[in-house]
Structures
1.
Amino acid sequence: MRVVIAEDQALLREGLARLFRDGGHHVVAALRDADQLLDTIAHEQPDLAVIDIRMPPTFTDEGARAAHSIKQLHPGVGVLLLSQHIETAHAVNLVALGGFGYLLKDRVLEVGEFLATAERVAAGGSALDPMVVANLVAPADSGPVGRLSERERGVLELMAQGLTNTAIANRLVVSERTVEAHVRHILTKLDITDSEDGHRRVRAVLAYLNSAHHT
Amino acid sequence: MKRLHLRRVPALLLVATLAVEAVAVALSWGLEPRYDTVLYAFYAVIVAGAGALIVSRHPGHPIGWLFIADATFTAVAADLAQGWGLRAAQQHWPAGPFAEWVALWSWIAGGPLGVLTLLLFPDGHLTRPRWALIAWANIAGVALLVPGFSLSPDIGDLFVGDRNPYAVDASWRSALLTVGMPMFLGSLVVAIVPLVQRLRRATGVERLQLRWFVFASMCAVVILPVVALLWSVAPVVRPLTALALIAMPVGAAIGILRYRLYDIDVVISRTLAYGALSVVLAGTYAATVVVIGAAVGRGSDWSTAGATLAATVVFGGVRHRVQDIVDRRFNRARFDALQRMTTFLDELRSGRAVPEDVERLLREALGVEDLHLLLLLPASELTVDLAGVSVTDDLDDGRRRWPIRHAGTTLGTLVAPAELAERGSLVPKVLDAAALAVEIARLRVGLRRQLDEVEASRARIVAAGDEERRRIERDLHDGAQQRLVSIGLALRHTQHVLGPDVDPDVNQTIDDAVAEITVAIDELRELARGLRPAHLDTGLGPALRDLARRAPLPVEVVANGDRYPTEVETAAYFTACEGLTNAVKHARATKVVLRAFHERNRVVLVVVDDGVGGAIAQNGSGLAGLADRVAAHGGTFRIDSDPGRGTTLIAEFPCAS
């Protein structure tokens, strides 16, 4: 996996690069800000861009805006946003695009899980930090959210984290067929109809997140 | 010395006029109609008195001297001469016919004095230079008429001897009379025109001052020529002359005494007050001496002491009352103005008026619209108006300034048209009376300004505090947290380098260290959120939802994604935090609703719980601190918390967008 890193803090930048290298990946560039990021992406066409959400000069959402541009110009490049805290607005806007992940920065310390998530995103999957999901899902006590059962909500939470049905089945210790049934019910209750669009799962998560976000 | 000497002249002339008139009345008494004797003497005394008064206040004022000259001339040339002539004819004294002759034409010779009075009244200046022609025409008329009239044989019947001893029967004399009479009478009549114009142009007090004199003068210039023409034909009209003449100085006196013309009221009122007081004191003294004398014997020390005591007691009580009565009669304007101020202070004391009304009161009391109070603030030495707005006094605007003092402190300045100065002590007296109200107004304005400054600084302190929280939050996220992640990554790298064959203890130790680091990062994140939630960067709505998510009870958030100014979002967020804390800690609530919305230029935050109610913002409590925080942003804070009916907190913050 070819990786581009954008992180303003030198120590952390080096640590991340080393982490990917230790995991057997190829870090093609490690940048200190978002300025050169798009050019580098265009030039290197990496599998994954790992971007800190706060970078110079304003330390607000430079990384999030860069992520948006990358997803528009190079939909094939996976983008993994890292943040010190949860800012749901960015997650909701980007997760629909696929090949996108949004994690708290300290998730990198769980090396195995982190690299697995990074690979999933690079392969076109989605990943939302459990904290983000909790943030969005917890106050769901009205609207379509209210129609879901507790178990269904749990399944949707795991869907939002980008887990496959198999992974969800393992996590919940149920059969894969049960998970498939739950997913069907969830899609029905959220009025997500069958279509050629392959992103029904993402749409389910989105509908869910949006309803929670705009309560 | 010279000045002193000059000032005595009018008084001496007044005394002389009185003496001359006394002699004239004595001489004429019984030898001519009584009205003639009395009215002309009366006329001379009034004119002399008015003249002396005016000159005493305004030395060198033309009208004063004209009056004095007229009175002196009339007393000597008309009244004394006539008296002498009459008495001489009866007593066979010398120069009788000559005196009669002088008296007969003296009225003509005095004409220019009358014309000048009409032209110059009241300020001593011509309204237009060309009106001087009228005076010259009158003087020329006099020059022609005096010989033409005095040498005429036709006035013989006016002498006691039925014959004009100086008669000259010549055609040039008739010609002088024929030309001189119309010039004299005509200029006299025309002289009224500038005076009437003055009246028509005058406004306010000046109009009142002029009105009576102009009215009397108009009557006089109509009556006098008619009477002059009918003098010999119809003697019955003769008393009209005296009445018409007296009307003029009476008209002037009304202007002077009642409407403060020449600012003379003060002199009069003091004179009258102390005169009346002297009479009362003397009466008291005398009465006491008599009464005590009758009781304890004449010449006793007791009666003297008792009388003195009585007079002293009477003096204290009576002085103000007498001054009051005199003021009412003779100093209306000042009396009314001071009366108004006294009433205002009473209303102020009883709370029916506010001290800031003092400016309006001064406008009314002094009868001037263009009047302003400038207050000197004690601490800052700033000059402000009554609204507390700092102003710079434009000293070159042609208006006058009066200092306002109270108990040795300068409170400020009264700015008003310079003409007010002509009303003498009126302004200083009224300002003295108003000083207390001005002082209160000044202190209030000062307090209000200080309060504004305190509120502004409180808002700045809160904003600085919020900014500091924001900075620390950033530092925690971007500094400490990031470093911990770096350290964790370094440990993981070490683990990787050591490989799978390392001592399991080492692996375990590294895993524990990384776990510790993760906990530390979480704690730092919570700490930063408590300082200032990073969610506020994305808006009030997300921050409230984050708050709700972490609450230990169900919290419903009703808020859209609207953005407001940072300080408003921060204040609203902490209001919600405190409301939520109250609901959890004290209200035993089972459900809370947080609502944030924008309405009529205000951001409103409502926290409703279903708890026990009865919350109050006590000193030192979180709710009191909250009220302070809301107030610091110029907002309002309300708690509805009846026991048993839950608690509703409503905070409103001004927000224009």
2.
Amino acid sequence: MSLLEVEVLNVRHGLLQAVCDVSFKIDRSEIVAFVGANGAGKTTLFRALAGAHMPASGRVVLDGADVTSVPDHQRVKRGIALVPEGRHLFKDLTVYENLALANAAGRKGAWSIDSVFDVFPNLVPHLRQKAGTLSGGEQQAAAIGRALITNPDVLLLDEVSLGLSPAAVENVYASIGRLVGAATTILLVEQDLDRALSVATRVICMLEGRVVLEDAVGKLSREQIIEAYFGTRQTRSEGVTTQ
Amino acid sequence: MTAAVADNNEVGVSPRLVSGPALAACDVSVSFGASRVLNGVSLEVRTGELVGIIGPNGAGKTTLFGTLVGALRPVTGAVLFEGTDVTHQSMAQRCRRGLVRTHQIPRPFNGMTVFENVFVAAVNTHGLSRKEAYQRALDALSHTDMLGVANRRAEELGLLDRKRLELSRTLATEPKVLLLDEIGGGLSEGESMELLAMIRALSDRGITIVWIEHMVPLLRKAAARFVCLHQGKIIADGKPDEVMANPMVTSAYLGGSVQ
């Protein structure tokens, strides 16, 4: 059984249908990159997976249990954690307080405040500092740490490199590399295709709310992904390969 | 693609007479506080052209439109409309000259009917009589196929109709140059084809069109020229296929080094 199954999911923003009939399955320990242009529906999809945006129809099944109508704060307890685009830390709380809050809201497991600091040593000097005063890279580390500390089965990373300096992006990705093999399943949205391909095991490409291409990283060329990204493929296959 | 959609180019992009620039941005730079959103953009759009503008999120596309119509003031550079420097003219003045835009998120006057929304646009542009403005509004609604919903209130409309209304309001001002900001986004394939047909018809009427759109295949069916913006600069300008094959363009969207 797959860890996460998404079945014919439709998500709307009022009149706008942002996610259309999206279905996929994610197995434990997979790292899946979601690639697509602005407005493709990636962030909305992630928010729907995290319970932050209720879908119009379809199902989200986690480890065999239907969590579609479970709200976000309870979904954290079921094992889905989102690192939202733009981080959204509690800026007036300290780094420690941000992590402690998530620790209390989440699940028991291997991740603790200490182990988060092992992965993000750059946070240690800022423990008692308000999160809003950190640099972009440090805030991103704190946001990922806040998600990890809930001990998720599924970690959703939405554009973790957005607005960071190149050095900070390197740091964040180095730490994501350290999570690989830590039995965490990761879904990530990343604009930089080469970077996405360097960490992911599978790619799901979205266009205008739909999944248009999906395969293991080794099986797709950069050109195929670019064509799917812009929708410039000559023939769009209706049946998307599923694994 | 559905069978109903004729595949590209020959069908949609008819050669038409083009002459001097209808609209030009000359070395335009725009800043929001410390961040420079447009950096020395120069662009000429010839009369009768239909130009597609592409570029990743944050490239400066909408800011360019805002500057062209006068919603934003450039820190340097000039905007020329039909050879006249309009940089210091208001939006209303530029609108009366025939330069208008649509908005990415339709902005109808809610609480008013579709007809009233369009009538406001007609009556305020050229000092028409009530009767003339009435006729102008009807013409605009007829072009966008909205006469059937003319008495519905704007807030009751679905997304395609809201986009049509946005287009109708600009048409009621009798534009010479029409700037379309992501008017095709969020529509189904059938709906976007309807919109495409409407926009082509406007182009065939001789209206110069600049169209920002994320959906490259849709834009390709209409535009014979693509301009790609990235980080406030034009990085490619030419035939759609050439622009889309340009490694600088793919890198702008998807990262990676430019060979």
